[in-house]
Amino acid sequence: MTSILSATPSLSGLDPEARHVLDLGRRADAPPFEAGTPEQARRAYDEGFPDLQGEREPVASVSERTIAGPGGPLTLRFYRGQGAPATDAPGLLYLHGGGWVIGNLDSHDEICRWFANMAACVVVSPAYRLAPEHKFPAAVDDCRAVLSFMRDAAGDLGIDARRIAVAGDSAGGNLATVLSLLARGDRIPLTAQLLFYPNTDAAQTADSYRRFAEGFGLTAATMAWFRDHYVRDAGDIDDWRASPLKAESLADAAPAFVALAGHDILADEGEAYARRLEQDGVPLVLRRWPGQIHGFVSMGRHGPAPRQAVAGAVAAWRGFDPAFGKA
């Protein structure tokens, strides 16, 4: 089953909202992340993301707890959406983006709230370990542990262990794709993988790295900086847990929703991953936003596309599972 839809591009190529965000970035004239340290990049990102996010809509409840992770305590944030049942609610593991180096529980809070309410589900967002302090595969190991926790503690969390999906954007999309593949051996029957402009090939050789190398937000130089902080050495680039596009087979992975931005260095590898999913028989809904830039789903203050993308992901999730939300 494949459904491929495209949003209508603006006449100038870039949507007005995307041009506006890029203009804001140019006026700020901040140094690129690769000009400083990871800690400086985190501070700059934390100062900037509130200007992109819209208002944080209320959900039924928000709470946090700490679980034992493979590398130490892991903090999880739980969002119970309005209308989510007290028991047997759908569960969503949302993995934040940020190049495996930046990002945190607050930077993607808006998206988690949208998912919780639109899907009437429980969203779990983990503060997985970041690079370079914790190199690959630390983030993978953390997220895998959280997914297993959601399955094993489903009753306590009020979720249905048969109704769990994974989602993420950019580097979080990378982690979500990897979890979807690992879940086959872990025997966790995921209902969906919901991916926003996922990173699927750490080699960074796709042509979109040339077409959009500079001037469209995330640059090729910044992406290389992220990647080089994440991997331990060049050998990790070919490890499918870092580059899921290199996995031998994607067959039997969870049904996939893939959202891509047209003016994004990750566009081509996202397209390539979608093609692999289709070729390996994985149900797929591919949505393209030709006039958007990388990270647009985190820009709710500046237009309707972010909410539209999340709504599309929820609709796909429901379509993959006819029993969605039923006990």
UniProtKB/TrEMBL annotation:
PROSITE patterns linked: LIPASE_GDXG_HIS, LIPASE_GDXG_SER
Cited Pfam families: Abhydrolase_3
Gene Ontology MF: a single term: hydrolase activity
UniProt keywords, alphabetically: Hydrolase
Domain Alpha/beta hydrolase fold-3 as annotated: residue spans: 92-297
Active-site residues, as the UniProt record annotates them: S170
The keyword Transmembrane helix is assigned to this record: no
Family in the record: Belongs to the 'GDXG' lipolytic enzyme family.
Protein name: Alpha/beta hydrolase
Organism of provenance: Mesorhizobium waimense
